[in-house]
Amino acid sequence: MAKKLSARIKEINEPGHWLKLNEAAQLLQTSEITLRRKLKSGKIRSQFRDGKYYIFIKDDLYKEKKEDIIQFESYLKEKEIELRELKKQIIDQKILIEILEKKLNL
């Protein structure tokens, strides 16, 4: 009994974040339905407040997932820049083709 109590106290004092169900699903890259199943089966810590479910995310997992998101967003920005450059090259190539076709038709 004392072990359960000390484990519960440790769990309560554990640093973390309470996220709305949809926010937690996005962060964890899973569906809201999956999280609902887990919270109803007691596999994850949750609270029902103001008509919404909140999921507890441990601080280390939260930081890890946030870092993954930041890295992915950075990767996407790089690819967007690369895509813009490729689109410019395509436009330049089309202009060059038009010029060459006009010269051939003369």
Automatic annotation (TrEMBL):
Coiled-coil positions: 69-103
Keywords linked to the UniProt accession: Coiled coil
Highest taxon above the source species: Bacteria
Protein name per Swiss-Prot or TrEMBL: Helix-turn-helix domain-containing protein
Species annotation: Fluviispira sanaruensis
